[in-house]
Amino acid sequence: MKITAALAATVLGFASALPATQQQSPAKRQTQGVVNNCSKPSTMAITYDDGPYQWDYNVNDQFNAVNGKTTYFVNGYNWGCIYSEENVSHLRALYENGHQIASHTWGHVHLTQLTNEEIDTQVQLVEDALWKILGVVPKYIRPPYGEVDDRVVQHLHDRWGLVVVNWSDDSQDALGASDQEILDMYNGFAADSSQSHLVLNHAVHEPASHLPQIYVPQMQNAGYSLETVASCLNDNPYKVVGGYSPRDDSWTCVGTPEPGAAQ
Ligand SMILES: *[C@@H]1O[C@H](CO)[C@@H](O)[C@H](O)[C@H]1NC(C)=O
Ligand SMILES: *[C@@H]1O[C@H](CO)[C@@H](O)[C@H](O)[C@H]1NC(C)=O
Ligand SMILES: *[C@@H]1O[C@H](CO)[C@@H](O)[C@H](O)[C@H]1NC(C)=O
Ligand SMILES: [Zn+2]
């Protein structure tokens, strides 16, 4: 019943399928329909891509310790399968702690190289998985590599009602930045908390295992409000909200498109 509702919402186009009360006003957008910053002053949306992954637990603990919120842009089938027991309990813990769960495509693909139909598969599979696992349909997507063009952005908006998010600042953890280089970036932010920032980090790179305990409390003490991406844009994180579903035979990555990349 719930799955049918979610599928209907996505297949028919969410704007027409959702009751008016669940429709959200569009988030503030920049650069050809792509959001790359928070719209509320003194807010910081610190984000983590490419999970669920083991280091999400550390990130989760550090944000919870200061009552801050974060955002995870997750894949379905990249380093492993989102439907594994471990990943399912993991995602539910992050979600129950009030963090935002958003899409990063099923297989971490280069969206600009796909047809609209292939993009639909990449979006639909993540929506189905998060609907089954969490009972939510994400409203936000971050394109892998920050790669979108006008066609892709327009398709994600018009066909899926998605808000496309890039970032204002890159920790460069995926590019091999040292611990000190990453902390220097955050130290720079601490100098002026009247600014806002939307910061890219990765859950699958080793800095996530031990640096959040330093910079998360530091950013809060500097005066930033640590918020989810949706919250720092005064928006809702999900197109649809329901409840968890029980596991069944459809909870598998077998038969879905292969991962596009390992990071
Ligand atoms: C799922 O779990 C495995 C370990 O079981 C992990 O390596 C992987 O990163 C997780 N996430 C995804 C999206 O596969
Ligand atoms: C996302 O940010 C990166 C780094 O600034 C940039 O290279 C890329 O073009 C951006 N993508 C979009 C769609 O703005
Ligand atoms: C993000 O917004 C702040 C204002 O709050 C601005 O100072 C900063 O330059 C913006 N960053 C980018 C990359 O647009
Ligand atoms: Zn990524």
UniProtKB/TrEMBL annotation:
> Where is this protein found?
Cell membrane
Return the SUPFAM superfamilies for the record: Glycoside hydrolase/deacetylase
Q: Which domain of life is it from?
A: Eukaryota
Q: Which InterPro entries match?
A: Glyco_hydro/deAcase_b/a-brl, NODB_dom
| GO CC annotation terms, alphabetical | plasma membrane; side of membrane
What is the protein's major site of localization?
membrane
Q: List the PROSITE patterns.
A: NODB
* Keyword Phosphoprotein (UniProt): no
GO-annotated biological processes:
carbohydrate metabolic process
Instruction: Give GO terms: molecular function aspect only.
Output: hydrolase activity, acting on carbon-nitrogen (but not peptide) bonds; metal ion binding
NodB homology domain residues: 42-227
User: Which cofactors are named for this entry?
Assistant: Co(2+)
Topology relative to the lipid bilayer, per the entry, is:
Lipid-anchor; GPI-anchor
Q: Where is the signal peptide?
A: 1-17
Q: Which UniProt keywords apply?
A: Carbohydrate metabolism, Glycoprotein, GPI-anchor, Hydrolase, Lipoprotein, Membrane, Metal-binding, Signal
Does the entry feature the keyword Transit peptide, yes or no?
no
The entry's protein name is NodB homology domain-containing protein
* Organism of provenance: Wallemia hederae
